[in-house]
Amino acid sequence: MGTDISNVESASVGASYISENPLPPIPEPESYALLLAGLSLITFVIRYSPRKQMLI
Question: What pLDDT was estimated at residue 49?
Answer without folding.
Answer: 86
